[in-house]
Design the sequence.
């Protein structure tokens, strides 16, 4: 069966953009297309998948068709992929499957979200639309509340305190401070991150990702085409995805994400790799507790040891076996919902080609992983990438 | 006299009638709490009465949500106040007092000595917030649970109706037609449980449907419960002025207002911490 490579990847800076949907997508696509080393024109694209929640409802219908007009992909079959915050992680998987199926040779996967052009009340509405409306939302929960319930339970079940979450925040701000594409490019001290405004106890402002605008875009190619486009492709060695109960209360445990565990197992199995083989992981830290859980669910730490993993600084750039969120993660790089999944791929693409910004290049990076979660874990896509094809 | 505290209200039981009163008082007048109204008081009165009597037909006066009372109390038969067949009537006072009386019973209201004085500015602000929230001119960006969707899940939401399949309780009920849940029996789960986790969302982080009231309340408190009959659920917390959540804290579930939109109030079960 055909192998699939990432041959180009680009994004906008994440943050509070003056640009709207069209302008941001154009910039991300232009950067992605420019990163392809040779022999590429947008007209070569056979299919395109664009992840977006269509936050704010500005262009809720036919979002993707509008965007192709602004990236020289007129006429390309395109669709919007929506799986909440995992939208473009699933767009990537769909793009990968399109090539795997033999129906396409060159496919674009991307994502976009414009979140900062709304009134606070309208924004709060949209931030809560991906939970279980009838039961969770009517119980007063938006995602800070949902993850706060997970955090408090985690502290109860395991040897962990809020300090462990502060370590996650400090680490990701450190990484973000070295990333010119990040929404927040400044370090925070442990003391400052310990005392933030309480958003949903026990989670403070420093436990929550920012509300970001942004777009990201990657170009995938079948092996026989990829070799004409670049000498340094990044191969998708494993793709796994899963779903789980939408509502937290329907899950047997709220201190682990089953969808992550299942998706990771599939991706590792396909890649014939284990967690110890991963050099860098871009994980879905929409809240700091989410990173603690992810390090366990992805197999970097034993169950109940994610807090210790953070406390000991094991995910810090080039400090432990795996660098976690070298980009700054959702916490510092930012979280433009639909753009996050393929934005993670942009980081892994650069890191595995040795093209990350100098200060945060992961040493000898050969294998990377992306982990993109929808909502509180109802959907998850995990991908494993390698400099080597197998 | 002192009534029995029942679902957060004061209930006075007599042979021919039951009186349910709000514990809150302003200038000597009984007033509703922050998320109570005549409907929630009526539900408490009926559920208390059902411990002693079978009730068939009950009439509901204007000012109460008959469908919500029916769903919360699992009363299949309902009609308007003129129904000649009804044996019981719900009666509404000028104050936050509801009486459930056998038809033609003579009702005597006794003054109860439990009275929690409310803060007037808070009370007025909350009343105004509810009025604004329910205004048809207030086009909220809140969660849209339509009237049809609300009614579809009314019994699970208000009566804690679940399913039993393979001797295991499932709640909220599933609509699967392929699993054995399709043929499962419907049961009412015990409206009680224990706290598995909790949080208070700041007013700024609360869902937009609570935007008018959350600042007055200092945020929105939610608990994840393990219900005593098995399933888990998340619920808003009610009457938490004198009680704080903690792991394994016992709670009872009571019907209260959740939020209003387009002139229509969505009621539901809220968690009331049981103070030892």
Sequence:
């Amino acid at each position: 069966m055909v192998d699939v490579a990432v041959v180009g990847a680009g994004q906008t800076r994440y943050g509070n953009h003056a640009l709207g949907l069209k302008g941001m997508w154009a910039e991300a696509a232009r950067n992605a297309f420019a990163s392809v080393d040779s022999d590429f024109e947008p007209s070569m694209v056979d299919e395109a998948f664009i992840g977006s929640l269509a936050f704010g409802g500005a262009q809720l219908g036919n979002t993707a068709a509008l965007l192709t007009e602004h990236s020289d992909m007129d006429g390309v079959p395109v669709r919007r992929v929506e799986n909440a915050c995992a939208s473009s992680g699933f767009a990537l998987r769909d793009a990968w499957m399109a090539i795997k199926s033999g129906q396409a040779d060159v496919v674009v996967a991307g994502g976009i979200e414009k979140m900062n052009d709304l009134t606070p009340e309208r924004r709060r509405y949209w931030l809560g639309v991906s939970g279980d409306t009838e039961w969770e939302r009517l119980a007063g929960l938006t995602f800070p509340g949902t993850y706060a319930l997970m955090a408090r339970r985690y502290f109860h079940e395991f040897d962990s305190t809020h300090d462990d979450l502060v370590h996650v925040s400090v680490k990701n701000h450190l990484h973000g401070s070295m990333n010119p594409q990040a929404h927040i490019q400044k370090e925070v001290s442990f003391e400052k991150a310990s005392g933030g405004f309480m958003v949903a106890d026990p989670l403070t402002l420093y436990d929550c990702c920012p509300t970001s605008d942004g777009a990201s875009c990657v170009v995938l190619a079948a092996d026989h085409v990829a070799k004409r486009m670049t000498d340094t492709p990044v191969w998708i060695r494993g793709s796994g995805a899963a779903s789980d109960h939408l509502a937290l209360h329907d899950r047997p445990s709220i201190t682990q994400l089953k969808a992550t565990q299942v998706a990771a197992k599939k991706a590792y199995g396909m890649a014939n790799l284990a967690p110890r083989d991963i050099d860098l992981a871009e994980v879905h830290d929409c809240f700091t507790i989410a990173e603690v859980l992810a390090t366990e669910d992805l197999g970097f730490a034993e169950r109940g040891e994610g807090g210790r993993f953070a406390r000991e600084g094991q995910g810090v750039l080039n400090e432990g076996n795996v660098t976690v969120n070298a980009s700054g993660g959702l916490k510092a790089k930012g979280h433009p919902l639909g753009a996050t999944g393929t934005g993670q791929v942009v980081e892994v693409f650069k890191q595995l080609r040795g093209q990350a910004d100098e200060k945060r290049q992961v040493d000898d990076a050969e294998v990377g992983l992306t982990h993109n979660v929808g909502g509180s874990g109802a959907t998850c896509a995990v991908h494993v990438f390698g400099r080597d094809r197998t | 006299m002192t009534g029995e505290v029942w679902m957060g209200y004061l209930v006075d039981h007599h042979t021919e009638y039951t009186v349910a009163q709000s514990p809150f008082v302003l200038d000597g007048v009984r007033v509703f709490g922050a998320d109570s109204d005549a409907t929630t008081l009526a539900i408490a009165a009926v559920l208390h009465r059902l411990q002693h009597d079978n009730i068939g037909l009950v009439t509901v006066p204007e000012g109460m949500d008959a469908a919500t009372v029916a769903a919360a109390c699992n009363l299949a038969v309902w009609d308007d106040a003129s129904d000649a067949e009804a044996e019981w009537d719900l009666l509404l006072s000028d104050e936050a007092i509801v009486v459930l009386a056998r038809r033609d019973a003579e009702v005597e209201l006794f003054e109860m000595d439990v009275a929690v004085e409310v803060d007037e500015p808070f009370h007025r602000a909350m009343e105004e917030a509810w009025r604004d929230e329910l205004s048809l001119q207030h086009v909220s960006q809140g969660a849209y649970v339509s009237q049809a969707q609300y009614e579809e899940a009314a019994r699970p939401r208000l009566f804690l109706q679940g399913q039993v399949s393979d001797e295991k309780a499932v709640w909220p009920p599933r609509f699967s037609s392929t699993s054995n849940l399709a043929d499962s029996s419907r049961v009412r789960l015990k409206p009680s449980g224990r706290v598995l986790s909790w949080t208070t969302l700041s007013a700024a982080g609360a869902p937009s449907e609570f935007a008018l009231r959350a600042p007055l309340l200092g945020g929105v408190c939610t608990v994840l419960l393990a219900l005593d009959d098995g399933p888990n659920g998340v619920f808003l917390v009610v009457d938490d002025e004198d009680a704080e959540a903690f792991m394994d804290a016992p709670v009872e579930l009571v019907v209260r207002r959740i939020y209003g939109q387009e002139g229509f109030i969505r009621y539901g079960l809220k968690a009331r911490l049981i103070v030892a």
User: Anything to note?
Assistant: Chain B touches chain A at residues 141-145, 149, 153, 172, 196-202, 204-211, 220-222, 224, 231-236, 247, 258-259, 266, 268 (CB under 8 Å). Helices of chain B lie at 38-49, 66-73, 120-134, 147-152, 154-159, 214-217. The longest strand of chain B covers residues 250-261. Residues 4-118 of chain B form one domain.
